[in-house]
Amino acid sequence: xxxxxRDELVRKALEIFYRDGFNAxxxxxxxxxxxxxxTSMYKHFRTKEDLILAALRLRDENFRNSLFRECEGRxxxxxxxxxxxxxxxxxxxxxxxFRGCMFIKASAExxxxxxxINAQAAEHKRLLLGWLTGLAQQAGFAAPEQLAxxxxxLKEGAIVAAAMLGAEGPAREAKDAxxxxxxxxxxxx
Amino acid sequence: xxxxxRDELVRKALEIFYRDGFNAxxxxxxxxxxxxxxTSMYKHFRTKEDLILAALRLRDENFRNSLFRECEGRxxxxxxxxxxxxxxxxxxxxxxxFRGCMFIKASAExxxxxxxINAQAAEHKRLLLGWLTGLAQQAGFAAPEQLAxxxxxLKEGAIVAAAMLGAEGPAREAKDAxxxxxxxxxxxx
DNA sequence: CTCATGGTGTACCGATCTGTAAACTTACCT
DNA sequence: AGGTAAGTTTACAGATCGGTACACCATGAG
Lengths: 189, 189
Known about the structure:
about 0% strand, DNA-binding, elongated, Tetracycline Repressor, domain 2
């Protein structure tokens, strides 16, 4: 039970879940596509739910790390980094494999708020909201929580609209709206 | 095969699909909860997909009609009606059975753009975007398509955030952001 | 060599999935 | 009454679901 083997299983499962959905992807399919036997799969993950949770954990790590790093690389002020998020999103939307937000889909398939998968998806959004709030604070806005929520709304709306209607319009309008909101938001002091 | 019987089946199926998801709800469960026999169910709907499409059609009708009527009742200017949409959303979020947007969930579970269910969900969003564009035109904005898309982003983002993080914040911030965007959008002429 | 140990493949479990076949009941029309 | 057609019940088909029992096989230790 080498630990890197487990990581590889999570990586592959993440890819398949993202492409085909959670309930629509059976363990049999995952076993075939990862090349591992069913017994081994269940040695690494007690249940399918455990595997989904591991995949979401990996996705959360990857997504947040790459988003934060990209934004830092594209702008050096907090306000600039908030705005840069929408450029990062635009690039993501334009990628071939773009299929919307994995956490929105997870919460859509497991709607019960008491369900661990739903809770973990919500946690991802809370972490993003916290990051935006921190940036808004650093930027010196008078109401950082409110502004962060508005940025989150534009981001989630853009992801949903890009997945359902096409990439260009939502990416452009989200950034334009964000810039206007940032420009007119009151500063503290 | 009374036609109203069919309507009743669609209504009930819509309710169950919305509450429990599409793939997670089997025809057996639907048959039990509607009290109809399996054979009758399949007399009315050739496949489960047909039933889902009928449920989405009903949902689209109900949602758009009630949204449009509510907005017209709450404001008499086009711009006021756009803004009123966010109050209607807030009321919806606060309802007990609120579980997010059925069309976002449908497109999350049936991701293939060629799939009829995905196409119908996308069509619902296009109709909403068209309605917003019409209002923005009537209101005399210089770039109605862009403004309509921004309002749609706020709406979709608010629905997602309300479903995952709670109702109050998203509803309030969506409206605040929308008002600011409307106030600062250039008018034609 | 012998034996324990840990990972593997095969074959299977019962439940549930979508969808169907066929006989039966009910209600209406003449 | 007799016939027709809608709608019912029951039973089932074939596939797939999540999950497991068990025999097999490699490797390293004594």
